[in-house]
Amino acid sequence: MIPKIIATILLSLILIPAAFGQIVDTLYTNPNMEGGLSYYECYNSVLYFPYGTIKSVGDAYNYYETGVIFGRYYVGFDLPLYPDSLELIQADLFLYQWGCMGNGVIGPFPIWDVPGGDTVFCVADHIDIGPFLYIDDWEAGDPGNVGTFQSNFGLLSSDSILGWKTLNVTDQALQDYELLREWTQFRIRFEIDTDWDYYQDLLYFCSGEHTVNPPMLVLTLEPKNSIADRFGEKASMYSEISAYPNPFNDGVFIELTTPLKSAGDLTVYSLEGKEVFSYIINSVNNPYYWEGRDYNGSLLPSGIYFVVWRMENSEIVEKIVMCK
Question: Which pTM value belongs to this model?
């Protein structure tokens, strides 16, 4: 197995073909900034859990020492320095939801027995905890805390479906770069700490120690004045391409919007730039559905793919992520 740090360097060198003009870099957590912090009512204190392949957020009940426990998960990524010729256009946080528990039952999404509890979800905070995670960072992410950049800036999970959960963190990563920070850091939690019902309401995520599904930060960069830049403005004035759900599992709907007479062609590329599937479009017949298979009908591996819509000397590119 290639060590993660080497794999990250190799991924950072993968160039998407000039038709895209994009570079995708996949980063993994810094173990010094990752871990779980949990408040124990019986001790009236916070405990630090740096190790383990699975981390939990939510609340539980300690039957042995009598008291409520509620926890938060912290992740941090070192930010690479890129040449001035590249600009960051998108950053996505990926966490693998490994399990759920609602009111002490394995499987359901956490059930919060409070008014409006069915709208209490797992969210992320943009934080600054320095190069190491400490117990004192428990409140980093709370409004008004010195370690908080932005509290509850996005929803990470609202359902019991296991698999990859993703959150767009472009604004947060750009802010960190602008502040000349060496890393970007997030706190994962529920919008309330506990409902005091003494049942377990938890989400479980794979940690950086998980060898198959560790947390990832996927950065998409584009050369300044790239081909996509030159065509993008003209195309976006008249036409749009959207994909949903994204990330996807069984398949993805690709929807096109254009007033142009010639609809062109629609092509799906792998991260390495290999054409894997295409559609000839005589008229926009929405939506198109791609099942993640190649021309031979073989199922393709999980990963990042690009949908390119070419028409009348212009093109639009949409990044999609398949998670099996």
Answer: 0.69
